[in-house]
Every structure is written in structure tokens, then in C-alpha cells.
Amino acid sequence: MPAKAAVPRGDSSNPAKPDRRRSHSAGFTLIELMVVVALIAIASAVASLALRDPAATRLEHEAARLAALLEAARSEARAIGLAVSWVPLVDPNGVGGFRFVGLPASSELPTRWLGQGVSAELPGARAVLLGPEPLIGAQRIVLHLDDQSLILATDGLGPFSVVSSEAAPAARP
Questions:
Q1: Residue in 67, 59, 78 with CA at minimum distance from that of residue 146
Q2: What are phi and psi of 133, to 5 degrees?
Q3: Which of 2, 105, 126, 172 sits between 20 and 30 A of 96, alpha carbons compared?
Q4: Rounded distance between C-alpha atoms, residue 143 and residue 120, angstroms
Q5: Is residue 51's pLDDT more than 60?
Q6: Alpha-carbon distances of 89 from 27, 101, 155, 173, rounded to whole Å
Q7: 135-150 residues labelled b (16+ CB within 10 A) or e (exposed)
Q8: In this structure, what CATH number is given to the domain that contains residue 89?
Q9: Based on the structure, what is the number of domains in the chain?
Q10: Alpha-carbon span 22 to 17, nearest angstrom
Q11: Which neighbouring-strand residues pair with 143?
């Protein structure tokens, strides 16, 4: 009987008996990396929203409200055919407000800002003309709150809207 060749155990060169030891690779799978990147993106988005300046948010709310009020008064001025204007006010106590000049007493538009500390200025004008003509001149209103300012404007044909904001402290006269 011919002699069999002895094969040492654990030899991976034998194709009949594969080595039972597994080689573990160090590192992460692509899916694990994608999950981590997604979690970091979500966390950074939440953090950036949480760190937003509350004064800027308040000023944006005031600007959106004022734009809606101006458009409502502008529509009413055209409907009734009266000259209507908007005038910013500051009372002696430092509380800002505004009024619509020319609207009938039945119009119940607000005359105060939503929050304290908001003020408005009209560069080169004393009032904003709202009607009765459908086409009014180009006009700007600069809203201030603390060190923030925001510009609300119209070209005379379109509605009032926010055109820019200034991050630098606003110079007040």
C-alpha cells in the first residue's frame, strides 16, 4: 500500500480543507459611514437653527406684518379712492408705533409694533404714500431692532417686500 502524504492541520494551502480562521478587516462599512454623516448633518442643522438671533427673527416677523398691513391699506386706498399714507411714530416714552393717515375710522388696522424696541425710518421722506393711484413711487422703509436693521421696499408697482438686511449696526440719525 502506498504511503499517504501527511498534511499538517491548519495549513491553508490545502484546498480540500479551508482554514476556519476568519480574517477581520479593521474599519467601517460604507453604510455605517453614511449613517454617521447623516447624523452629523441633522445635528448641525438643528444647532444652526437653535443659534439664530432672536432679534433678527422678531425683526423679520415685524417686516412681514408691516408689508401685509401696507398692502391692505394700499388696496383699501385704491378701492375707496382716497389718498392714504403711512407714518412712523415715536411717543415720548420711546414706544414706537405708526399710523395710517387718510383711511376712514372704520378701518381697524393696527398702530403698534408687535414687540418693544422696533422703530422705523423713511430715508428721504416723512411718510409712505399708498394710494389712491395703482402706481406709486418707489419707496423704502428701514426697520430697526437693537443692532439689526431690515429694508422693506417697493418699486411702486409690486408689493412691499424685504429687499435686504444689514448685519452691521445701523446708523441712526
A1: 59
A2: -70, 145
A3: 105
A4: 4
A5: yes
A6: 66, 12, 24, 15
A7: ebeebbbbbbbeebbb
A8: 3.55.40.10
A9: 1
A10: 14
A11: 120, 150
- Omega prior to 132 cis, within 30 of 0: yes
> In this structure, which amino acid lies at residue 48?
S
pTM of the model: 0.66
Question: Cβ(131)–Cβ(77) under 8 Å?
Answer: yes
**How is residue 7 annotated by DSSP?**
-
For 19-47, b/e burial (b = at least 16 CB within 10 A) is eeeeeeeeeeeeeeeeeeeeeeeeeeeee
Q: What is the DSSP letter of 5?
A: P
- Residue 161 forms part of a structural domain: yes
Structural domain boundaries, residue 120? 54-166
Residue 35: left if φ>0, alpha if ψ -120 to 50, beta else—which one?
Answer: alpha
DSSP 8-state secondary structure symbol assigned to residue 16:
T
**pLDDT tens-place string over residues 73-119:** 999 999 999 999 999 987 666 677 999 999 988 888 998 998 888 99
Q: Write down the residue that cell numbers 484546498 correspond to.
A: 15
Nearest to 125 by CA among 142, 110, 101, 149: 142
